[in-house]
Amino acid sequence: MKVSIKVNGTLYEREVEPRMLLVHFLREELGLTGTNVGCDTSQCGACNVHLNGQVVKSCTCLAVQADGSEVTTIEGLKTNGHLHPMQEAFWEKHGLQCGFCTPGMIMTSVALLQSNPHPTDAEIRHGLEGNLCRCTGYQNIVAAVKAAAEIK
Amino acid sequence: MVAAEEIIGSRIKRREDPRLITGEAKYLEDIQLPGLLHAAILRSPHAHAKIKKIDISKAAKHPGVIAVYTGKDFADVNPMPCAWQAGKVKNNVNTPRVLEIDRVTFTGAGVAVVIAEDRYTAQDALELIHVDYEVLPAVVDAEKATKAGAPQLHENAPSNIALEWTCGTQESTDRALKEADVVVKQRMLNQRLIPTPMETRGCIAQYQAATEEWTVWMTSQAPHVMRLLMTAFVFGVPETKMRVISPQVGGGFGAKIFLYPEYCLMVALSRKIGRPVKWMETRSENYIATTHGRDHITEIEVGAKKDGTITALKVNTYANLGGVLSTIAPGIPTTLYGRMLSGTYRIPNIFCHVYGVYTNTGMVDAYRGAGRPEATYVIERAVDLVAHELGLDPVAIRRKNFIPPDAFPYDPVILNGLKYDSGEYAKALDLALKMLGYESFRKEQAEARKQGRYLGVGFSSYVEICGVAPSAWIGLPGEGWGAGLWESANVRVHLTGKVVVTTGSQSHGQGHETSVAQVVAGELGIAVDDVIVQHSDTLGTPFGYGTYGSRSTAVGTVAVYNSLQKIKEKAKLLGAHMLEAAPEDVVFEDGKVFVKGSPDQSKTIQEIAGAAALAYSLPPGMEPFLDNTSYYDPPNCTFPFGTHICVVEVDKESGEVKIKRYIAIDDVGKVINPMIVEGQVHGGIVQGVAQALWEGAVYDDNGQLLTGSLMDYAIPKADFFPTFETDRTETPTPVNPLGVKGAGETGTIASTPAVVNAIVDALSPFGVKHIDMPVTPPKIWRILQGHGG
Questions:
Q1: What is the ipTM of this complex?
Q2: Which domains does chain A carry?
Q3: Do residues B733 and B422 lie in contact, with contact meaning Cβ atoms separated by under 8 Å?
Q4: Do residue A122 and residue B719 have CB atoms under 8 angstroms apart?
Q5: Closest residue by Cα to residue B692 from B759, B768, B769
Q6: Bridge pairing between strands B202-208 and B182-193
Q7: How many CB pairs under 8 A join A and B?
Q8: B469-496 pLDDT, tens per residue?
Q9: Quick one: closest CA in B to A37, which residue?
């Protein structure tokens, strides 16, 4: 099937198998390997991207479902070569260790602040429920999201 | 810029992060090669079965399939080696093959492989393979597996016993138990856990027929060891014929130390097919085919005097090792468990008996802490049980039995000749108590009980063993480890003054590229940004044993430090030559060489490096370039310690446990980057608390993993925790010149008993003395119902 999907501001048209997952479309068709796959049951959130401004698990969405949509991935967060404040905050607050969950975690965090610009710790922790991290114990991720909220 | 002398000990932002926060880092799954094929593995759905026949004909004809193979096609490939067998006892070793040929002993064992042009096709074709199994009865419980009538897994392991190991003295321990004022007995389970690094495992192998050489990319914590084991033990080819690369690795927690069948399968396939082949594990595969951790059934007997002085500890453990042995499985419930059972206490008589047992379950090997969490759980629960029996305060009994600061180096006798290096156990406890406000907590607890609210506090005053060495102690002559356990480093100061460090250890989230650079910058008086740390590729790094057991700083970074001292010595000689001064008159300070007392006339390390590289004028006999390689084999292990305190509230109606406060005081010796150490502690606490409250791998009686995905296995989420309150005491180790002990596992080792002790404390009005993990709400609810609560 033919799909046309705008990813990080560029329109891509591709012929794909109907069963191709959005995450594989991004990674294998477009070479955007920043989005990771951490599970096969939609639990971990490592594959989170923005689809028309909403966070979605790109392992649970078919590429054909994203036809005609706009997708933002971790690679699309920088503006004019500058890191997004959320990327800066994760770096500053040591909000990552192995980094595998980080792209998904950052994409969720960005969306979290878009819907709630000044969250409490509890709201941040609740908002990150769909993202698993096995390294950080979440504490510095919470600190990073808070710090990013303050920059904004 | 941070001043040179302050670099070591500073919160420097990690240098590995820019590639990770932008998605530019290349993990195994991100690597593409021309002509790359994809492999998918068919795994046994039965826990114990004979393979009668495998029909691959349909799968082989499926469009897009390149080849299908079964175990018989690899009969010439050796089984995986078991590289750490329990010391000085007979080990009945059975290890996996690249694909099993005639029998499987756990659900998930590989029996066939499909290689196809793409992953979707490979998965499709798996469903076309037909395997005829003769299903055999299964046993999943380690204790039951040793009893008469249990299904037998391996001919060479009667009663399914892989090994029987002891440490300590049975006779004196039995006598001390007989003479004790009180003896407390308890059976306790340390349940099986699934490590779950967020990146699963994977491997790409490429073979060059012209030179008979491989390049293998794998998700490994120990690429040099993988190369050694694959070439010398599995394939019988020269070690020099293989290059192993660990790309960016997304966490390991022990599970990525080992040599797995799939890696060797890719190596074999790449040679057979003549094209590069990739296998990337799915999470469902990860749960059945990657190693698990813990899984002990333990009976303890503790003897004490009326005043709380502990006089004896007797421990009998059935350690479940799974259907076959993983790479270092036997060493975990023996050396790393039994030898640490004294904890932070003077216990004159200890005896530990361990059965390592085969069952029809997935392989069990090192998982974060590896043996020490199990030992710490035993001793920290034991201390609380004695306190409960004697009506003593859990803090008081700890203080009474602590090894005092003046007793170090301390020989706990069961450590087979090693001694605890340094410790101030009461100091860490005091700091933790101060942060808690112990007295006011007890008042609050009493008040709450009157209102029908159940608060509890739990303590864990732990000690663990890191930087495991010396080679002669851990190796074959002593503890059965089948190699050495030193580390290596090369430091080169290039013509421009920029420094390249190569190390045999490996980083998969620990931040070595930052912490090692800090040591270099601090020692040489240069900017951190002028140092690059390279690792994880057998081409271009000196041999090293890899990263596990919190050893990369305590062993690997000390090798870097030693090389830096030799480089500074050479720089002094050359600097003196350049200054036309006598070598004995000059000093190296803040990155400069100058005659003592005359810092105005100096040569910088950059100038000296340039002179060494140009080699126009060197002192007689001096070789060009500032370059040094060190191999460091420590004289002893290091022993981090501390006290963790957990405060919980148990909901009497629902049985739910809420963590109200978590305090962690850790002493990991000198700290190179406090930010990184705190991150390690946070992550460790979460994994340890998760064992106490939520996680647990469950097999049914047929050997089916019921917790086979992230839907069923409870990895904790962000909102399960309060903000941890952490601090440190700093007792440098005399073992190494950096004074560092190791920080990767303390949180996991300490936290589990702190949580369980807190829950038992909360439930003590109901007569609860012990409760097995994971302490889930239904478990508490049932206990409270049973006690009429």
A1: 0.99
A2: 2-75 (3.10.20.30), 85-151 (1.10.150.120)
A3: yes
A4: yes
A5: B759
A6: unpaired
A7: 174
A8: 899 999 998 899 999 999 999 999 999 9
A9: B199
